[in-house]
Amino acid sequence: MNRTIPTLLTPGVLAAELAVPLHRVLYILRTRRHINPAARAGTLRLYHRSTLAEIRHELNAIDARRPGQVRHG
Questions:
Q1: Where are the domains of the chain?
Q2: Which of 9, 56, 64, 73 has a beta carbon 3.0–4.6 Å from 13's, enabling a disulfide?
Q3: Burial zone of 62 (CB within 10 Å; 0-12 exposed, 13-18 middle, 19+ buried)
Q4: Which residues contact residue 50 at a Cβ distance below 8 angstroms, ignoring those fewer than 6 apart?
């Protein structure tokens, strides 16, 4: 049996991939109950790569409600 180990991302890596400050990603992860970690390693939360799209969507929704803000992604 050939098992592959999934690549999981930390919030810091998610922020780097999205090119946004870490505090914005942490805010989304803290306030959006539908975005859940795929795994935990101690207190560290780890996320699937597909979470990037969900976070990008939430960031764009926040930016759309703010007049004069630059949209990401």
A1: 11-64
A2: 9
A3: middle
A4: none
